[in-house]
């Protein structure tokens, strides 16, 4: 997912010219993005080991399939590999890699237990590749800036919703998620509002002529229907089972949005 997002984002932002990037550069950027994402997830699992013993005992670390030492060594190796890949491309790539690495470590060590502030950092990290693509293409603005904001809001909603099934473990660990502080129903309502706002932003490219309306509009209409349905489902049934299934569906909706932007900008 990370690799696909990076390549499509650079293509969309550059109007599919990939100006300034050789094929080797593109592969290297993908390696750096993959390493950064992997390091963030591994360190998160290491730090959340006690929480996961309650919320997700099936994961490799709490299940004893991987030791914390092995996970730490793998994380350090991937962080170093990603840095070498980033510095071989350009300064913007290096800056985004180091910034992303610092933010992910800050989130995992200090901000995760803060609830909403931590959720905002996660949303920023996930939307960063799209802002990166805009900067590499010559500056902020254009379709990728819109999509980056859409992703930020959608991921923020997903992070808020993820607190619903994890209330017991989060309470025990002192994590102040929206669901813990204000209740599951409030968390579901906040997540739904963020999803709807994200979908609404998807119509901005049509207004500014960033995309081909004949190609882009059907995707956006489908995405809007799916998001509205999802928002209603999570508000009506903020249960553990529903939210766990909901997390994966939201990732699928973001992929639909990315494909819509990719196809919609092909002839523009």
Automatic annotation (TrEMBL):
The keyword DNA-binding does not apply. Keywords: Membrane, Transmembrane, Transmembrane helix. Pfam families: UbiA. It is found in: Cell membrane. InterPro entries: Prenyltransferase_related (IPR050475), UbiA_prenyltransferase (IPR000537), UbiA_sf (IPR044878). The chain crosses the membrane at residues 27-47, 68-89, 95-111, 118-135, 141-161, 186-208, 214-235, 250-267. It is a multi-pass membrane protein. The keyword Membrane applies. GO terms for molecular function: transferase activity, transferring alkyl or aryl (other than methyl) groups. One of its GO terms (cellular component) is plasma membrane. It comes from the Archaea. This is Probable (S)-2,3-Di-O-farnesylgeranylglyceryl synthase. It comes from Aeropyrum pernix.
């Amino acid at each position: 997912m990370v690799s696909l997002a990076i390549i499509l984002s650079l293509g969309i932002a550059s109007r599919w010219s990939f100006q300034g990037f050789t094929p080797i550069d593109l592969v290297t950027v993908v390696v750096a993005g993959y390493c950064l994402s992997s390091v963030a997830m591994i360190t998160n699992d290491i730090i959340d080991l006690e929480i996961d013993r309650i919320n997700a005992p099936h994961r490799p670390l709490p299940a004893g399939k991987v030791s914390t030492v092995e996970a730490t060594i793998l994380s350090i190796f991937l962080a170093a590999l990603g840095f070498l890949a980033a510095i071989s491309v350009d300064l913007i790539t290096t800056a985004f890699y180091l910034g992303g690495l610092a933010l992910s470590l800050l989130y995992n060590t200090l901000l995760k237990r803060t609830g909403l502030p931590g959720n905002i950092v996660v949303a920023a990290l996930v939307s960063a590749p799209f802002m990166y693509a805009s900067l590499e293409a010559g500056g902020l603005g254009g379709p990728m800036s819109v999509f980056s904001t859409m992703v930020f809001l959608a991921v923020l909603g997903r992070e808020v919703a993820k607190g619903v099934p994890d209330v017991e473990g989060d309470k025990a660990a002192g994590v102040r998620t929206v669901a813990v502080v204000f209740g599951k129903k409030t968390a579901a309502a906040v997540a739904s509002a963020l999803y709807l706002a994200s979908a609404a932003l998807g119509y901005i490219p049509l207004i500014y002529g960033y995309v081909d309306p004949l190609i882009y509009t059907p995707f956006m209409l489908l995405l809007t229907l799916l998001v509205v349905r999802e928002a209603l489902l999570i508000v009506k049934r903020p249960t553990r089972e529903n939210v766990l299934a909901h997390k994966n569906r939201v990732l699928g909706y973001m992929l639909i949005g990315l494909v819509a932007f990719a196809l919609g900008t092909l002839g523009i």
